[in-house]
Amino acid sequence: MITDGALARLVRASADRTAAAESEVCDLCAAPVPEEHAHLYDTGQQEVRCVCRPCSVLFAQGGAGDGHYRLVPRRRVRLPRVDTEVLGVPVGLVFFVPRADGTVTAEGPSPAGAMRWEVDAAAWQQLAATCPQLAGVEPEVEALLVNTVHGLDHHWIVPIDDCYRMIAVVRREWRGLSGGGRIWPAVERFFEDLTERP
Which Pfam families has this protein been placed in (predicted)? Predict the structure, then answer.
Protein backbone atom coordinates (compact mmCIF):
# COMPACT_ATOMS: atom_id res chain seq x y z
CA MET A 1 0.00 0.00 0.00
CA ILE A 2 1.38 3.41 -0.94
CA THR A 3 0.85 5.82 1.97
CA ASP A 4 2.39 8.93 0.47
CA GLY A 5 0.88 8.91 -2.97
CA ALA A 6 -0.96 11.76 -4.67
CA LEU A 7 -4.32 10.70 -3.21
CA ALA A 8 -2.92 10.59 0.34
CA ARG A 9 -1.36 14.03 -0.12
CA LEU A 10 -4.69 15.38 -1.44
CA VAL A 11 -6.61 13.94 1.53
CA ARG A 12 -4.09 15.41 4.01
CA ALA A 13 -4.21 18.82 2.29
CA SER A 14 -8.01 18.82 2.34
CA ALA A 15 -8.04 17.88 6.05
CA ASP A 16 -5.54 20.66 6.78
CA ARG A 17 -7.72 23.21 4.95
CA THR A 18 -10.84 21.99 6.80
CA ALA A 19 -9.10 22.27 10.18
CA ALA A 20 -7.80 25.73 9.29
CA ALA A 21 -11.27 26.83 8.18
CA GLU A 22 -12.79 25.63 11.46
CA SER A 23 -10.32 27.51 13.68
CA GLU A 24 -11.30 31.07 14.47
CA VAL A 25 -9.27 33.94 13.09
CA CYS A 26 -9.15 37.68 13.70
CA ASP A 27 -11.69 39.42 11.48
CA LEU A 28 -9.24 42.28 10.92
CA CYS A 29 -5.88 40.63 10.22
CA ALA A 30 -6.80 36.90 9.83
CA ALA A 31 -4.37 35.81 12.57
CA PRO A 32 -5.52 32.77 14.55
CA VAL A 33 -7.23 33.63 17.83
CA PRO A 34 -7.43 31.45 20.95
CA GLU A 35 -10.77 30.14 22.20
CA GLU A 36 -10.94 33.01 24.73
CA HIS A 37 -10.45 36.17 22.69
CA ALA A 38 -11.68 39.75 22.49
CA HIS A 39 -14.50 41.01 20.29
CA LEU A 40 -15.23 44.22 18.43
CA TYR A 41 -18.74 45.52 17.88
CA ASP A 42 -19.23 46.78 14.32
CA THR A 43 -21.68 49.66 14.78
CA GLY A 44 -22.41 49.89 11.04
CA GLN A 45 -23.31 46.23 10.57
CA GLN A 46 -24.47 45.74 14.19
CA GLU A 47 -22.37 42.58 14.45
CA VAL A 48 -19.75 41.22 16.79
CA ARG A 49 -16.37 40.42 15.24
CA CYS A 50 -13.52 38.29 16.59
CA VAL A 51 -10.25 40.12 17.15
CA CYS A 52 -6.74 39.06 18.16
CA ARG A 53 -4.93 40.62 21.11
CA PRO A 54 -2.68 42.98 19.03
CA CYS A 55 -5.65 44.28 17.02
CA SER A 56 -7.79 44.69 20.16
CA VAL A 57 -5.18 47.03 21.64
CA LEU A 58 -5.77 49.43 18.74
CA PHE A 59 -9.38 49.91 19.83
CA ALA A 60 -8.84 50.19 23.59
CA GLN A 61 -10.28 53.35 25.13
CA GLY A 62 -11.92 54.44 21.88
CA GLY A 63 -8.63 54.39 19.93
CA ALA A 64 -8.87 53.45 16.26
CA GLY A 65 -11.93 53.15 14.07
CA ASP A 66 -13.65 56.52 14.61
CA GLY A 67 -16.38 54.73 16.54
CA HIS A 68 -17.16 52.31 13.71
CA TYR A 69 -15.62 49.50 15.77
CA ARG A 70 -15.97 49.44 19.55
CA LEU A 71 -14.03 47.06 21.76
CA VAL A 72 -16.50 44.90 23.70
CA PRO A 73 -15.73 45.08 27.44
CA ARG A 74 -15.42 41.96 29.58
CA ARG A 75 -17.32 43.26 32.62
CA ARG A 76 -20.18 41.21 34.06
CA VAL A 77 -22.18 42.39 37.06
CA ARG A 78 -24.96 40.40 38.68
CA LEU A 79 -27.73 42.76 39.77
CA PRO A 80 -30.45 42.41 42.36
CA ARG A 81 -33.92 42.05 40.88
CA VAL A 82 -34.66 44.87 38.41
CA ASP A 83 -38.33 45.62 37.76
CA THR A 84 -38.30 45.83 33.97
CA GLU A 85 -42.11 46.09 33.67
CA VAL A 86 -41.72 49.85 33.22
CA LEU A 87 -40.01 49.09 29.89
CA GLY A 88 -43.18 47.47 28.54
CA VAL A 89 -41.54 44.27 27.26
CA PRO A 90 -43.82 41.24 27.68
CA VAL A 91 -41.14 38.52 27.47
CA GLY A 92 -39.04 36.98 30.21
CA LEU A 93 -35.82 36.29 28.26
CA VAL A 94 -34.58 39.55 26.81
CA PHE A 95 -31.66 41.97 26.74
CA PHE A 96 -31.77 45.75 26.65
CA VAL A 97 -29.11 47.70 24.77
CA PRO A 98 -28.74 51.47 25.20
CA ARG A 99 -27.59 53.06 21.94
CA ALA A 100 -25.19 55.95 21.37
CA ASP A 101 -28.04 58.14 20.06
CA GLY A 102 -30.00 57.76 23.33
CA THR A 103 -32.44 55.14 22.11
CA VAL A 104 -32.77 51.74 23.77
CA THR A 105 -33.56 48.46 22.04
CA ALA A 106 -34.91 45.27 23.53
CA GLU A 107 -33.90 42.03 21.89
CA GLY A 108 -35.27 38.58 22.56
CA PRO A 109 -34.22 35.24 21.09
CA SER A 110 -36.28 33.28 18.60
CA PRO A 111 -35.52 30.29 16.39
CA ALA A 112 -34.66 32.72 13.59
CA GLY A 113 -32.30 34.91 15.65
CA ALA A 114 -32.95 38.05 17.68
CA MET A 115 -36.28 39.87 17.59
CA ARG A 116 -35.75 43.58 18.16
CA TRP A 117 -38.01 46.43 19.18
CA GLU A 118 -37.48 49.92 20.53
CA VAL A 119 -38.02 50.75 24.20
CA ASP A 120 -39.14 54.15 25.44
CA ALA A 121 -35.92 56.00 26.35
CA ALA A 122 -37.68 57.87 29.18
CA ALA A 123 -38.74 54.53 30.69
CA TRP A 124 -35.11 53.36 30.54
CA GLN A 125 -34.02 56.54 32.35
CA GLN A 126 -36.72 55.94 34.95
CA LEU A 127 -35.44 52.39 35.48
CA ALA A 128 -31.82 53.58 35.68
CA ALA A 129 -32.84 55.98 38.44
CA THR A 130 -33.91 52.97 40.54
CA CYS A 131 -30.79 50.93 39.68
CA PRO A 132 -27.71 53.20 39.48
CA GLN A 133 -25.54 50.49 37.84
CA LEU A 134 -27.66 50.81 34.69
CA ALA A 135 -26.51 54.40 34.22
CA GLY A 136 -22.99 53.04 33.64
CA VAL A 137 -23.92 50.57 30.89
CA GLU A 138 -21.71 51.34 27.86
CA PRO A 139 -23.87 52.12 24.81
CA GLU A 140 -23.83 49.53 22.03
CA VAL A 141 -21.40 47.12 23.74
CA GLU A 142 -23.07 46.28 27.07
CA ALA A 143 -26.61 45.21 27.90
CA LEU A 144 -29.01 44.46 30.70
CA LEU A 145 -29.69 40.71 30.29
CA VAL A 146 -32.84 39.40 31.99
CA ASN A 147 -34.27 35.91 32.44
CA THR A 148 -37.48 35.62 34.45
CA VAL A 149 -38.86 32.58 32.58
CA HIS A 150 -40.20 29.76 34.80
CA GLY A 151 -39.87 31.88 37.93
CA LEU A 152 -36.14 32.55 37.52
CA ASP A 153 -34.72 35.88 38.57
CA HIS A 154 -31.53 36.62 36.62
CA HIS A 155 -30.51 40.23 36.00
CA TRP A 156 -27.04 40.96 34.67
CA ILE A 157 -25.02 43.71 33.05
CA VAL A 158 -23.05 41.80 30.42
CA PRO A 159 -20.96 42.40 27.30
CA ILE A 160 -23.01 42.29 24.11
CA ASP A 161 -21.20 39.14 22.97
CA ASP A 162 -22.73 37.25 25.93
CA CYS A 163 -26.17 38.22 24.62
CA TYR A 164 -25.35 36.85 21.19
CA ARG A 165 -24.05 33.63 22.78
CA MET A 166 -27.40 33.29 24.56
CA ILE A 167 -29.23 33.76 21.24
CA ALA A 168 -27.03 31.04 19.71
CA VAL A 169 -27.98 28.66 22.54
CA VAL A 170 -31.68 29.25 21.84
CA ARG A 171 -31.27 28.76 18.09
CA ARG A 172 -29.23 25.58 18.58
CA GLU A 173 -31.69 23.98 21.02
CA TRP A 174 -35.04 25.13 19.57
CA ARG A 175 -37.26 22.33 18.28
CA GLY A 176 -40.71 22.56 16.69
CA LEU A 177 -43.12 25.44 17.18
CA SER A 178 -42.76 25.92 20.94
CA GLY A 179 -39.04 25.28 21.39
CA GLY A 180 -39.23 21.74 22.73
CA GLY A 181 -37.91 20.31 25.99
CA ARG A 182 -34.20 21.07 25.49
CA ILE A 183 -34.29 24.82 25.21
CA TRP A 184 -35.03 25.90 28.80
CA PRO A 185 -32.52 23.59 30.51
CA ALA A 186 -29.88 24.89 28.06
CA VAL A 187 -30.82 28.51 28.83
CA GLU A 188 -30.66 27.80 32.57
CA ARG A 189 -27.17 26.27 32.15
CA PHE A 190 -26.11 29.37 30.22
CA PHE A 191 -27.12 31.60 33.15
CA GLU A 192 -25.60 29.24 35.73
CA ASP A 193 -22.27 29.49 33.89
CA LEU A 194 -22.19 33.30 33.98
CA THR A 195 -19.62 34.59 36.46
CA GLU A 196 -18.98 38.12 37.63
CA ARG A 197 -15.95 39.87 36.14
CA PRO A 198 -14.66 43.37 36.89
Answer: DUF5947
